[in-house]
Amino acid sequence: MPPMNIDRLISERARQIDASGIRRVFDLGAKLKDPINLSIGQPDFPVPDPLKQAAIKAIQNDANGYTVTQGIMPLRHRIADHLRDEVGWDVDLRPAREADASKPALLVASGTSGDLLLAFQALLNPGDEAIIPDPYFVMYPHVARMCGATAVRCDTYPDFRLTAARVEPLITPRTKLVLLNSPSNPAGVVASAAECRELLDLCRDREILLISDEIYDEFTYSNAREETAVGPRCPSPARCEGCDDNVLLVRGFGKTYGCTGWRLGYAAGPRRLIEEMTKLQQYTFVCAPSPLQWGVLPALDLDMSPYVADYERRRDMVVDRLSRVTELAEPGGAFYAFPQVPAHLGLTASQFIEKCLEHSLLVIPGNVFSSRDTHFRLSYATDERSLTRGLDVLVKLMSA
After folding, report:
1. What is the pTM of this model?
2. Is 247 within 8 Å of 214 (Cβ atoms)?
3. From 18-27, 124-133, 208-217, the region with the lowest mean pLDDT
4. What is the CATH number of domain 6-46+305-398?
């Protein structure tokens, strides 16, 4: 018999999603000799030893089976304590039948990507709309599409700020949520406290959920922090008065502690939504990786500020070099910059990336993150030698 035509069976849902442009750049990089890799979106420092030892101990103590869907209780308690101190939320961890319905609930999931997938599935019906920033993290429009919904892109050029003024004209009766990513990927821009407040007020007024993706919250630099009761922190709508029933807060461990492959994140917010996300996790991911939940238990007690200070110094290098040859919105956090390809070159970002590859430099074209192809993303989560070499190449190409 001839081989089955599997292509005939592939769903329209899968066909509508392209392979990540980031992965295509990775594939090209594998063919280069001594590449200068400024494309990778993960920290270049090792996982702290307390996390490694806690994970090893959990494995050796046979904590390798399923956990409850919501996450192990010691980790949930530690996260709840952290959110109480850091944003002032009184998270109720009791079972639904006993809990105060007016207080936020909490779910540990398989990465912040897992949290976002569960949230979108719990909220969006076919035909619904979710407003996302443009440029955006690569998964945002595709997750909406998986739900049969539409990701409405909010143009944030040239400063890459998702403001209430920009969002309001895009709201329709089909809008279910607005997604804020701060510090942002790919631009590294941090929303101000005033911008968070105005966006929350708009969402409350229009009865729309505000999802705040804060995976890079610890990577906020001195010029972008706001003073809070616990010291300088990343501005967040979760810290605004009256946010409890209107904000889903999404954070994680992978970026802050260098354990991206552990796939651990958490979501806190309206109990009714968290209950639905928990139910969906039960029938998809089941639970977050068991020994690694124990592994991150010491994380929130660690001081990562020396690492963040080092990344701020690298940010300064990028801004100092590139702002002389192109337009660049100064990153206030994360470890990315999103420079514009100078107009005088007459090149799209994709064409400019080809020039970079000729010099063994890997960066990501802006059309991976955006409707436009005018900018590119570079990551400075790399050693100083590679960063300096990469910036030398970029300055030379942009000055041509």
Report:
1. 0.94
2. no
3. 18-27
4. 3.90.1150.10
